[in-house]
Amino acid sequence: MKFFDSKEEVLDIQLTQYGRHLLSSGSLKPVYYAFFDENILYDGQYGGLVEDYTNPSADVEVRIQDETPLLRTQYSFTGREEYLFDGVTDDTDRIRLSAYEKLNVMPMSLGTTALDSTKTPAFNIQFLEGEINSLEYNLTGNTRTFDSVTSYSQQLIKIPQIETDIEFNITVVDPLNSDVNFEVDPALSPPNIYSDGFSVVIGPEQLLLLVEEKNTTFDYENFDIEIFEITNETGGSGEQVMNQLSFVKPLEMVENNILIDKEEAELKAGRTNGQLPTLDPTYVEYYFSVNVDAEIDENQICKSVSSLKSKNILIDTGIECPDLTTPIRSNIYYSDAEDEDCPDN
Question: What was the pLDDT predicted at 142?
Answer without folding.
Answer: 55
